What we know:
Layout: E1 4-9, E2 13-18, H1 23-39, E3 45-50, E4 54-59, H2 66-77, E5 90-96, H3 105-111, H4 116-124, E6 128-133, E7 140-143, E8 158-161, E9 165-169, E10 172-175, E11 180-182, E12 185-189, E13 210-216, H5 218-223
Parallel strand pairs: 5-13
Antiparallel strand pairs: 1-2, 2-4, 3-4, 6-7, 6-13, 7-10, 8-11, 9-10, 9-12
Amino acid sequence: MFPYNIQPLGDTSLLITYSHNQPDKLLNHIHDTARILYEIKHPAMIDVIPAFETIAIEYDVSLCTFKHMKKVVIPYLEEKRNSISIAPAHHRIPICYDEKVALDLIEMSHTHNLTPEEVIAIHQETTYKVALMGFLPGFPYLTGLDKRLQTPRKSTPRTYVSKGAVGIGGNYTGIYSLASPGGWNIIGQTPIQLFNLSNTKPFLFQPGDTLSFYAITLEELEATK
Length: 225
């Protein structure tokens, strides 16, 4: 079990912060723990928000206090689940790498002394993990990006990035769930909808899920619009 402490986070949330020296194992532990906490369905619990080293829990202050919510969650934090892993969902995501939508593919290939075809092949050969969600609703930060493709975010962000754009920022791959300004290096686009408020579960991905990409043509992409 990873050492942790619990503190208030504003007036309506608590924050569980872990100490560690094994970031990959901690992230798996956080995802498992967050899923279990979410399944409690405590009437005062509004949301469970995992991150790289923390889990935030938002609660209804009209139904419980910080001290009460702390007592609720502690038993679930102290269970010994080292040998237990909650099976994540796996998603296969179509992506179009055509230069019409892969706005930074050529520049990235020059930066890394690769051909565009090599960049595409490397990007597809990895199984990625959803580390956390943000900065847009449903936007996944995906770990597992090959070091050959790791690229700093653009020094001047674009004022407009299309919904479904697949980008690289530092050592992460991400997918824009909504049209937005952004500074990630865009190497493709997916027609898959990541965020839909009309669904019972509005987010396609959950932290801990895994995904892989497979290529589609520009015609296939445009046929879905």
